[in-house]
Amino acid sequence: MVVVSNPEFLREGSAVHDFLNPDRIVIGSDDQSAAVRVVSLYIGVTAPIIVTDPPSAETIKYAANAFLAAKISFVNAIAAVCDAVGADVKDVVLGMGYDKRIGHEFMKPGPGFGGSCLPKDTRALVHIADSAGYSFDLMRGVITVNEDQFHRVAAKVRDMAGGSLEGVKVAVWGLTFKARTDDTRESPALRIVSLLADQGAEVQAYDPAVKGPVGGVVPAADPYAVCDGARVLAVLTEWDDFRWLDFDKVAGLMETPRVVDARNLLDRPALERRGFSYVGIGR
Predict the structure, then answer these.
(1) Is residue 265 part of a domain?
(2) What is the pTM assigned to this prediction?
(3) C-alpha distances in angstroms, 129 versus 8, 9, 74, 77?
């Protein structure tokens, strides 16, 4: 039996586009004729083709996702530094990204990474390295920073609420791990909701793609309903829909107009003109 490894590099929400317009095609096989047959499946797709052995092909997949996770954890760590010294992470990332060796991709601070790939593949790479006798402490740090980020966002919500969440109504916008998908697997939003609930918060959540109960949360039918009586609004997923809502109406519904924008999605000056207290990530 001949086994060919052909890892995919597809993003949720744009899988068809990514398949037809790949950055590269990776084929791993110890049998050259089998590799050629798999390569022939991609006739008409313009992309570099890498033919290698199966272990290398599989490691390319893990290493690519682990590197993206590392970029996310790095920018979230930089955002924490920005919070501490009064810098604006948007300007910092903009300045960094123009360096061609760094770039702008995966350099947006947020509530942490999640979904079906990055958490799984970072843990898998650590395990693979351990099994081979190498302690991948760098990747362990990436995972730790990501876990810490969930707690940092929850702490921002608690601080915005006045130091305690016991009995406090918190409105949450976003439950999926990212916008343009209904996937809630290992969602940072759900992790943060759980942390808020553990501290006594009464969480009311809305997500345009989530219609049924998930993670102990029953989502509301619209984004305004969850704001009724809320002391803090937490934006946890970067749905564009949230940018264009009626924030005068939101302010009128809330107990106090306070926003923790974990995606740096909303227009801060516009919110502050409407009387909102605003806290972002690294801003």
Answers:
(1) yes
(2) 0.94
(3) 22, 22, 21, 24
